[in-house]
UniProtKB/TrEMBL annotation, chain A:
Recorded topology in the membrane: Multi-pass membrane protein
GO process terms (BP): stabilization of membrane potential
Family listed: Belongs to the two pore domain potassium channel (TC 1.A.1.8) family.
Region called Disordered, residue ranges: 1-26
Domain of life of the source: Eukaryota
Location(s) in or outside the cell: Membrane
Pfam family, one: Ion_trans_2
UniProt keyword Metal-binding present: no
GO cellular component, one term: plasma membrane
Official protein name in the record: Potassium channel domain-containing protein
Automatic annotation (TrEMBL), chain B:
Disordered: annotated span: 1-27
GO CC terms in record: plasma membrane
Keyword Transport attached: yes
Top-level taxon: Eukaryota
An MF annotation (GO) of this entry: potassium ion leak channel activity
Family matches, as Gene3D superfamilies: 1.10.287.70
Oxidoreductase found in the keyword field: no
Name assigned to this protein: Potassium channel domain-containing protein
Alphabetical keyword list: Ion channel, Ion transport, Membrane, Transmembrane, Transmembrane helix, Transport
Family statement: Belongs to the two pore domain potassium channel (TC 1.A.1.8) family.
Compartments, as annotated in UniProt: Membrane
Topology of the protein relative to the lipid bilayer: Multi-pass membrane protein
Extent of Low complexity compositional bias: 1-24
Amino acid sequence: MSSPTDTLPRTDGGPPGRPQRTRPRLTIPVLRLPGGAPISPATGAPAMVTIPMTPGPMTAGGIPISVTPGPFGMLQVYPNKASEFMFKQFEGFKDFTMNTAKSGLSAGEKTAFWMYGKVRAWSRNWFTHIFLFLVVLSYSLIGAVIFVAVEGTYEEQGQADLRRERYVLLRRLRELTRDPVLATDDEMWEGTAVSEMKEYEKTLYESFKHGITLKPDNDWRFWNAVFYCGTIYTTIGYGHISPSTTTGRAITILYAIFGIPMFLILLADFGKLFTRGIKFLWAFVRRLYYTGSCRKVRRTVPVQEVMKGVQLVYDFATFRRPSQMVGEPGGAAPIARPEDVELQVPLNPQPQPNIPLDSNEPPGTPAISTFEVDDEFNLPISVAIVILLIYIFVGAFIYWTWENWGFFESFYFVFISMSTIGFGDFVPQHPMYMMASIVYLIFGLALTSMCINVVQEKLSDSFRQASAKIGATIGLRVNEEDGSITPVPPPQIEVPEVHGTVTKSQST
Amino acid sequence: MGSIGVSGVRSSVRSRGSSSTTTSDPREKVKDCCRKLVAFMCTQVGVGGLVVGYAIVGAFGFMWIEKDWKNPQNENVAKLHATCVCDIWNLTVSGFTFNETAWRSEVDRVLKVFQNDFAKAYKEGYNGRINEDLWTFPASLMFCLAVFTMIGYGNIVPKTPMGKGLTVLYAVFGIPLYVLYFMNMGKVLASTFRWLYRRLYECSEEGVGDHDSESNLPPTPAPRIIVPSTACLWVMGGYVLTGTIMFAEWEGWEYLDSTYFCVTSLCKIGIGDFVPGANILEALNSGSQTKLIINFVYLLLGMGLIAMCYNLMREEIRVKMRDLKADMRQWLEDVRIRIISSYRRKRGY
């Protein structure tokens, strides 16, 4: 099914946009599968510009869809790669037309085109990240609005209740002073008054526990509510503010159920960004250090481990099959967020010892390390832990200057928050610091999960080795795949019979 | 011992040689069972035992460290009491007795001062009891659990610097251990659940398919039964429901509050406004000690169930998420192209 190609170069000098009946446009053979989505034979013809454009009122009209021809209408998981390839084709064609068209343009327009190209390249890479971040941000804001509406009114009422309690106490004391018996006796009056005060104190304590405070402005202001929402979906859960109404609690439940998976996806995305940045920095530093000798060295096992860990963090949240490192069979290891763990461990696919970058194999992701320069002297686990410690100390230092905590308390706070334990005994007070805290904590969480994963992998490796050793000494072997236990017969020992047939009762 | 070992081996070799098809020797069976048990403990149950042991050891440690800490706020609040009462008395004797409005406003002012100071003391950590009563064994156990499962209730927290440092260390080693436990529990529970589901399925099929046995069809191999995701959701829902009823009955919470507690704990948020067994008066009688133990087990098992659900649902979730992500990417590209093309159209290109 192909429409006659209209080979007029576009006079407007850009990539073909939406189909307009009045404008000259480029139509190109489109392969259409019965599944409905027009699929371009992109990978088949490198020289041909393949832009699926529908010549009429079709559904996905005119938009280059980033798919690769997979088995019958299925989308492959390299949409980015395919779309990148396609856009490269775009670029080629566009440059051709642009160069012919640009010769007649002024300098200003040329710079405009250049900037536009840069912005587009930049936005293509960052759009997903920004989009995810915006989604999470709007989720927090919406949640905050809801909580302020629900809890703020309740809080005002609670403060009114407190005032009433105070007046009740006042009246009681007044009665005490009127009492002729007590008015003459100091001690007795004081004793009764103290017991009344104790009652009042108990009510005060209870209402404080439920979150009613005496601050002139109430707890559930907007930014506090945003912070509260943040503590929910990061699962830190400080508890310094908590919902007091039934509705608030029900909303919290729903908010958590939807917010936590979304945050996990964001976390993995940012974690991948972060680690790419670190790796890039590391490679840059090493290249700088060894100027001139930046030959690619054979990857070593420790390097693979941490890269595997990093990769798996991302793989989980994007639910891809974990990529295997070269030479590491069956290395699907669990991930720090324990929920992620379960997704990977039983998912031990047939060991794929070699996944070249452009593999056509069923879904895996390209290993990060294949992009980077490696060096033999890397100690990745230490590097990860050192970076984490630096991050924690920087944070502790910042909080030490911002809040009136000691340095150790700041460190304690940062650690407890980053491991998502979140006791809530130390909480940053100013709203601005709270917002900054959340951003800081998100990155910290990505880092922490990477480190925990690495450490835990070590633990599980040594655990496996230990159990294998134990199993070997007692005659059993633990299968790697499913943990089943198979008895290994002890090696047959040829001992000459000295005493003839030995019965069991005699020999044991 | 070596000779006995050798001869034991010899005998086992011989007995295996003599009865090659059946290991009908009971002692051999027992040995085999023992071996299997030990290896099983090393791999899966062992981790669970390790986790529980780690929690118990941690509980004792924290109890010992924290029980001697004197809350400075206790004296503070006692002093506040005394000052307030003194002030009121002074007001009373200084002649306001017959001028009610003046007396009321003055005493109101005094009470407000007391209230604010009390609020300050509360913020500083006053909680109405001494630390030794606070850090009972069940409470410490709950605290340790909250640390290494990363829930972090925060209803009791270590106040001494040593306690805080120990918390950090405890978390650094406890969290990976817990993750290991989580992974193992998930595997075990998932296989158990699959087996259970298959049994139930077959039982329900047996009643239906009996009349088929008369036909001379060759026995078809058992179809691979995959546990549907809804079954997992039902299991989780049932577990939360059980917890709700349990906590509501024991602690006297509302049902919604119980559900709120269960969900926030199982999601590892751990807000801390509801903690079972945190009521100190209850904790001092032995009945609530068992309750806290049961809470502990409930939470651990709950985490394992979540692991199991992820394990069982992963395929389906993975495929769905992949499709969703591809759709989202497609939509994003669509939007981006639209924005860019509309911008260009506006600029007249």
